[in-house]
Structure prediction request, 112 residues.
Amino acid sequence: MSELPNCPQCSSAYTYQDGELLICPECAHEWSATSDESTSSDFIVKDANGNLLQDGDTITVIKDLKVKGSSLVVKVGTKVKNIRLVDSDHNIDCKIDGIGAMKLKSEFVKKA
Prediction:
């Protein structure tokens, strides 16, 4: 029996193989069995001006953003501290004072 690697996200030892993919049952992370995880997980997020964003950066909103499902609006100039980058359509996870947890698109922010 071959030894499968631990999950690169949660370090779980209970990974299993499904075709070409390795899957973690604890965090549901999937990755390719043949590729190097460090190169596939590195993604680049740039702000509206083309500056590189990193986890923990402070950003400023450059456009009024309506909050879906409520009457709240994130105003231009709102500073957001300690962002977290994620690999999805809305690639910034953050917490905005007075509003709460939000997901933002990088095209509507600039690095502060």
